[in-house]
Amino acid sequence: MLTARTAHLIDFALEEDAGLGDITSRAIFPAKHRSRAVIDAKQDLVICGLEIAARVFAQTDPAIKVRLLARDGDRVKKGAIVLRLEGPTGSILTAERTALNFLQRLSGIATQAHRYAQAVMGTGVRVVDTRKTTPGWRALEKYAVRTGGCFNHRSSLGEQVLIKDNHIAAAGSLTKAVQLCRTAAPHGSKIEVEAKNTAEVREACRAGADIILLDNMTPPQVRAAVKLIAGRAQVEVSGGVRYETLRSYALPGVNLISIGALTHSVAAADLSLDLQPARQRK
After folding, report:
1. How many CB atoms sit inside 10 A of residue 7's CB?
2. 179 and 105 in a common domain
3. The predicted structure's pLDDT at residue 279
4. CB–CB of 275/89 below 8 Å?
């Protein structure tokens, strides 16, 4: 994930936090003051974003030496050290918060995704994310979802046709919206349609939708809709699904369950940087 976009995000984050320098560290530590430090887990988690954190330190000061002790996707126990640092004390402290922001956010998402993936294991249903992501962070957050064991839905409006309620209302009918998209979309594109009730499920089937998104339905309603669709389209469930109810929606005939909570309201994972003064050169 060390792409040009990621490098831009790191540059922006460092400029935002340290663009005027770090007056506290500069006042306390001379340039040659060096320290060792570790980043360790304060909870059980799935780690994600280690190389990005390492790049933050490197971009802050190439003199910082970084050693990774885990890999993205590893299940890390509370107390485990995931990264070691050695270098100028002031530079390490200048980069600390930015590096942790990336690492905590992405590890939080990966940890959440792992929980959700485990909840549907053995059902054949895939849990997928949505576009409810932090602006500018979508590629990173979707990477974290994959790292945790879930899957990605579309990453942008240009990747797949998805006809939602507002499209239907403005077009005049579900059928007309499907017809217009079928005419305009590239050859081979799948057409997905949101359906809120049985009548819309029937209309989506008649219109030839390739995927039908069952929106805010209960498990019994989903079961009835799957029976009605009868294999004529793939089935996605979305809306109102929580971790506690996830398994009840992973029914035979359901292909995907999309959950915005994989990204939009995830708590940051608990990791911290602990400094261990090493030596001071004169």
Report:
1. 13
2. no
3. 55
4. yes
Mind listing the pLDDT tens digit for each residue in 20-53? 999 999 999 998 999 999 999 999 999 999 999 9
> 277 pLDDT exceeds 80?
no
Residues 279 and 282: their CA atoms lie apart, in Å, by 10
pLDDT in tens, 123-167: 999 999 999 999 999 999 999 999 999 999 999 999 999 999 999
Same domain, 234 and 275: no
Neighbours of 120 (CB within 10 A): 18
Give yes or no for a contact between 211 and 233, defined as CB atoms under 8 angstroms apart. Answer: yes
One domain for residues 191 and 239: yes
**For residue range 44-80, what is the model confidence (pLDDT) as tens digits?**
999 999 999 999 999 999 999 999 999 999 999 999 9
Q: What are phi and psi of 203, to 5 degrees?
A: -65, -40
**Tokens of residue 253, six digits:** 């005939």
Q: Which residues are catalytic?
A: 97, 132, 164, 194, 215
Same domain, 201 and 272: no
Number of domains in the chain: 2
Instruction: Say yes or no: 179 and 256 in one domain.
Output: yes
Asked if residue 103 and residue 12 are part of one domain, the reply reads yes
pTM of the model: 0.94
Residue 43: domain span: 4-116+267-280
Looking at the structure, tell me whether residues 111 and 164 fall in a common domain. Answer: no
The reply to whether 173 and 214 lie within a common domain is: yes
